[in-house]
């Protein structure tokens, strides 16, 4: 049976009260097991941290933060962004302008650029997602309010069953992306990958240190314009 161990992709929280919770020990979990246990683990974390929002964090007055969200030291959330449904922002993470973060773990020092929407996703330490990245967590179905198709990831040794109908992506430590990228459901990105602008990925794993580019990027043509007469 194929396996996906979180420790092969992301590190846990090391700073602040979050580090004493399950989010400080992500390397212990296999992906499907974590996704199944996630709601209970989050409730335990909420009970353990003394303050949901660390006093050194900055939350813009025009941002919205759910009552079950945990925000670590030195986190920054900018205007018109929404963080909700049991999300965790680890120390030093930054959420840019007009983002939507739903049921996600965002690792230490990770940067979400402007107008990013991620759902049911784990983002690794020092990852950097540029503007316009979207991560979808469910497949198309008859009733999108009640997804009924399990998320499955194609890995080198077969098909990995996530055991849930809602999973967006596992984005490894140090991953960098360009802009206007669509990921998920069921994407697993190895550490230190680079994803060029315009890429669309779903239901597959990408090994560490890979570079992913869209065909139109490689096929782009550049030509010189004809000079116009100065008298026209």
Describe it for me?
9% of the residues lie in helices and 26% in strands. With 232 residues, the chain is mainly beta. The strands form five sheets. It has a seven-stranded parallel β-sheet with strand order 2-5-8-11-14-19-22, with no helix packed on it. The longest helix is centred in the N-terminal third of the chain and has 18 residues. The chain is globular, with a radius of gyration of 19 Å. It starts with 30 loop residues before the first helix and ends in a 14-residue tail after the last helix. The mean pLDDT is 94.
Overview in brief:
This protein is mostly beta strands. The chain is 9% helix and 26% strand.
How would you summarize the topology of this molecule?
Blueprint: H1 31-48, E1 58-59, E2 64-65, E3 70-71, E4 76-77, E5 82-84, E6 88-89, E7 94-95, E8 100-102, E9 105-106, E10 111-112, E11 117-119, E12 121-123, E13 128-129, E14 133-135, E15 152-155, E16 158-161, E17 169-171, E18 176-177, E19 181-183, E20 187-189, E21 194-195, E22 200-201, E23 204-206, E24 211-212, H2 215-218
Parallel strand pairs: 1-4, 2-5, 3-6, 4-7, 5-8, 6-9, 7-10, 8-11, 9-12, 10-13, 11-14, 12-17, 14-19, 17-20, 18-21, 19-22, 20-23, 21-24
Antiparallel strand pairs: 15-16
């Amino acid at each position: 049976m194929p396996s996906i161990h979180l420790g092969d992709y992301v590190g846990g929280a090391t700073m602040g009260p979050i580090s004493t919770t399950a989010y400080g020990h992500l390397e212990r979990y296999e992906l499907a097991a974590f996704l199944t246990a996630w709601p209970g683990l989050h409730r335990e974390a909420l009970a353990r941290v003394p303050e949901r929002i660390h006093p050194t964090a900055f939350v813009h007055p025009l941002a919205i933060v759910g009552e079950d969200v945990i925000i670590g030291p030195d986190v920054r959330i900018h205007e018109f962004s929404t963080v909700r449904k049991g999300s965790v922002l680890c120390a030093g993470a930054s959420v840019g302008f007009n983002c939507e973060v739903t049921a996600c773990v965002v690792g230490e020092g990770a940067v979400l650029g402007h107008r990013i929407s991620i759902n049911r996703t784990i983002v690794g330490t020092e990852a950097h997602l540029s503007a316009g990245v979207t991560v979808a967590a469910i497949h198309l179905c008859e009733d999108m309010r009640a997804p009924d198709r399990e998320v499955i990831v194609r890995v080198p040794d077969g098909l990995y069953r996530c055991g849930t109908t809602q999973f967006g992506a596992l984005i490894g430590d140090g991953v960098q992306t360009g802009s206007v990228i669509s990921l998920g459901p069921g994407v697993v990105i190895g550490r230190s990958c680079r994803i060029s602008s315009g890429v669309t990925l779903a239901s597959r794993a990408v090994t560490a240190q890979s570079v992913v580019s869209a065909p139109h990027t490689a096929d782009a043509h550049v030509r010189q314009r004809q000079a116009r007469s100065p008298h026209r």
